[in-house]
Amino acid sequence: MIRPLTARASALFTLPSLALAVALVGCADPSGTGGTVDSPSDAPVESEQHEPGEPEADAPVLAAADSAANDQDTEGQPALEDQDEAAEGEGEAAEAADEPPEPEAILEPRRVLIVGSSLAATGLGAVLEDTLDANPDVVCYRKGKSASGLARPDFYDWFDQGKRQVEFRKPDLVIVIMGANDGQDLTPWKGSRRVRWDSEGWPEAYRGRVDQFLAELAAPIEEAEGAKVMWLGLPKVPSPSLERKLKVIREIHEQGVGALGDGGLYLDTTQYLVDEQGALLRSAEVKGKQRELRSEDGVHFTMSGCEYLAAKIYPEVLEALGLPVEASE
């Protein structure tokens, strides 16, 4: 038979239990959350609450225990509230330290595609490609075909090849160096009839081909915005008869690129190849020495001429790509 405890035994039983309860309360998380997010506590947060009207028989004893705890020597120790705030601050700092650092933004290199005739296929195009590739923020590709243009798609179809190259390379910028071979009849193509070079309808017919070619280059690809186009104006040449043709062709190129709005840039290269009086430069300083710029035909460039002109074009390309323009050496 279980006998009722005497008053003395009851008191002896109650006090250690209360001390244990106080110790357990002292180990609870100061924030009241029952632990950190990474290690949640299994105990309910408010397990000591009482229903309204429920007698609190142990309240005086708990109060006495709290009073005794407050009477202990706490000299040099922060108040409980300060301790709680410090613990919360340490917990937040620990959580912040556990969080991985924000990854740095990684920008893909700008992609440039150079297309065109002999100026793109050989010297100038190759030097410009190497110059751009030397920039860590740029990757450059090149597709050239000597003696090609828009007048003779039966010889080389730039309307098809331009589109293929753009779809394959997905460039941010397409640089076009083309047109020196286009001062001739426009051959029949996709149902069109031959258009004589010296006829009244040649400029309009050629402009239609320029517009179509630019549309292929700037067309959106795989739901991405289309590439920006930079058309390099044909350099001025010493031959009067060829220069008369190139003047007509330059104007049509500039008009076609202008129709693209912000997506088109026309760069006049002749400005880099003439003196203050407009006369063609025969030589210029390249790598600290005066060097010949043009080859014997007066149209193409020497290697020094290619390096000279590429160095002039390079900062314009960086600006078109939205990249910092490097200081010239």
The count of DSSP E runs of length 2 or more, i.e. the number of strands, is: 7
Largest sheet: 5 strands, parallel
| Estimated helix fraction | 40-55%
- Report the principal-axis shape: globular
Distance between the termini: 106 Å
CATH fold label of the domain at 110-270 and 303-321: Rossmann fold
Q: Which CATH-level-2 architecture of the domain at 110-270 and 303-321?
A: 3-Layer(aba) Sandwich
Main CATH class of the domain at 110-270 and 303-321:
Alpha Beta
Please give the order of strands in the largest beta sheet: 2-1-3-4-5
Total DSSP helices: 9
Question: Which class of secondary structure composition applies to the elements?
Answer: alpha/beta
Helices, strands, pairings?
Elements lengths: L6 H20 L32 H12 L9 H19 L11 E7 L1 H4 L1 H11 L4 E7 L13 H12 L3 E5 L24 H17 L9 E5 L7 H19 L5 E4 L15 E4 L2 E4 L10 H19 L8
Parallel strand pairs: 1-2, 1-3, 3-4, 4-5
Antiparallel strand pairs: 6-7
Helix pairs in contact: 1-2, 5-9, 6-7, 7-8
